[in-house]
Design brief:
Blueprint (H helix, E strand, L loop, with lengths): L17 E2 L10 H7 L15 H20 L7 E4 L2 H22 L12 H6 L5 E5 L4 H14 L2 E5 L9 H7 L7 E7 L11 H10 L4 E4 L11 H4 L3 E5 L10 E5 L25 H39 L4 E2 L10 E5 L5 H10 L2 E2 L15 H5 L4 H4 L2 E5 L6 H17 L4
Parallel strand pairs: 1-11, 3-4, 3-5, 5-6, 6-7
Antiparallel strand pairs: 2-8, 7-8, 9-10, 10-12
Helix pairs in contact: 1-9, 2-9, 3-5, 9-13
Bound molecules: pyridoxal-5'-phosphate.
EC number: 2.8.1.7
Cofactor: pyridoxal 5'-phosphate
GO molecular function, one term: metal ion binding
């Protein structure tokens, strides 16, 4: 293993460490902390309380809801504050699928045998409700669909992607199974966490709606980085997570159009339109609104610079390591996302070695806590497991300087050499 290239501080970091793992999480800005603080100290009341202090908190919650919705092209009433992307995805996928299943059963479209009988029996009846997702969804969506399959006998269709992780729209159309009217939901992410590919969600929504099916979009990686117009695109439900754009972790929202059938997953006091019971996190909602606003304002000014620095980094890596290959869509990708494979080394060894050289990055699937699994998106893109294992992801929200790029590329070259890549 190589020597650290700079001295370590007491906290274990070096002065020159470069954080290139923004897709995992982002720091919280001082402005966001300052905006949140009063709602934990002075204006701490429960927004449901009728006294004046409660009203002050309720007004702050309303203002946050309005600003947050406007920045995502939604209406204030669409916003359901949650504890983050995972909860939002679970609520959307399970909540909409179960509400639609109930209606289909009432209308006799799907089998009445679903509950209390074996799934084999309902499968044999050919009338299982269906859920359609892409083959590259985050586990918060993919595992929610698997849960519906396991406990309610849903038929889960995973629509394939091409070698750049772009969804196959013809396969999506076929998956809708229009004639049977049994498709409960389509769920496709806006931007992929592992390889940064942006999906054509407007086309996805058009296909879903033509079949009379609601569409959920996981916009966790995209929010604050690319423009989102939920209502204009016709999206029925959209998930976002605050810590990807600068709030503390554990904050997010599901935006749901009023007419979308959806069952709550939490029972309780009926907050958030009855869809997410529990006393609201007023400080958190304020933080979400400010952080999203800041991110969008930053991108308005710096998106072109960010994209240009991403492309310089990509080219420099490809020039420095002949074995390296870019993964994901070369053009239609997140502005601060560069992902590669380095056949001949493992991504895990590479990122551990890069860490010793002051470069903090990831192999791709950040949310697979403590497990170093083969990035599933790369497998769905058709890569052999031995190649997919060599994935490395460099993600950033601020444009990289030429010096940042030189340091990163030089560290990657040295790590590859140290790991025996010739
Ligand atoms: N969806 C996507 C695409 C993600 O990348 C992530 C996290 O990385 C999540 C959902 C889960 O979000 P959270 O960490 O807020 O639970």
């Amino acid at each position: 293993m190589s020597e650290p290239e700079s001295e370590r501080n007491d906290d274990g970091r070096t002065d020159g460490e470069l954080y290139l793992d923004a897709a995992s999480t982002e720091p919280v800005s001082r402005d966001v902390i300052d905006a949140m603080l009063p709602f934990m100290t002075d204006a701490y009341a429960n927004p449901a309380s009728v006294h004046r202090a409660g009203k002050t908190a309720a007004q702050a919650l309303d203002a946050a809801r309005r600003s947050f919705a406007a920045n995502l092209g939604a209406r204030p009433d669409d916003v359901i504050f949650t504890s983050g992307g995972t909860e939002s995805d679970n609520l959307a996928v399970k909540g909409i699928a179960l509400a639609r299943m109930e209606r289909m059963r009432r209308d006799g479209v799907v089998s009445d045998l679903l509950l209390g009988t074996s799934h084999a029996e309902s499968a044999a009846s050919g009338r299982r409700p269906r859920i359609v997702i892409s083959a590259v969804e985050h586990p918060a969506v993919a595992e929610s669909a698997a849960w519906l399959e396991r406990f309610f006998g849903f038929d889960v269709v995973r629509v394939p992607v091409d070698d750049a992780a772009r969804i196959d729209l013809d396969a999506l159309k076929r998956a809708m199974d229009v004639a049977s009217e049994r498709t409960a939901l389509v769920s496709v992410m806006l931007a992929n966490n592992e390889v940064g590919t942006i999906q054509p969600v407007e086309d996805v929504v058009r296909i879903a709606h033509a079949a009379g099916v609601p569409a959920h979009v996981d916009a966790v990686q995209a929010a604050g980085q690319v423009p989102i117009r939920m209502r204009e695109w016709g999206v029925d439900a959209l998930s976002v997570s605050g810590h990807k754009f600068g709030t503390p972790k554990g904050l997010g929202a599901l935006l749901v159009r009023g007419s979308t059938p959806i069952e709550p997953l939490l029972s309780g006091g009926g907050q958030e339109r009855g869809l997410r019971s529990g006393t609201q996190n007023v400080a958190g909602a304020v933080g979400l609104a400010i952080a999203l606003d800041e991110s969008i304002a930053f991108m308005r000014e710096h998106a072109a610079e960010l994209v240009a620095s991403r492309d310089r980094l990509i080219q420099a890596v490809l020039d420095a390591v002949p074995q390296a290959r870019l993964t994901g869509d070369p053009r239609n990708r997140l502005p601060g996302h560069a992902s590669f494979i380095f056949p001949g080394v493992t991504g895990e060894a590479l990122l551990v070695d890069l860490d010793t050289r002051g470069i903090e990055c990831s192999s791709g699937s950040a949310c697979a806590v403590g497990r170093h699994e083969i990035p599933p998106t790369l497998l769905a893109m058709g890569l052999e497991p031995s190649i997919a294992k060599s994935a490395l992801r460099l993600t950033f929200r601020r444009p990289l300087s030429d010096d940042d790029i030189d340091r990163t590329v030089s560290a990657i070259r040295r790590s590859c050499t140290a790991l025996g890549l010739r």
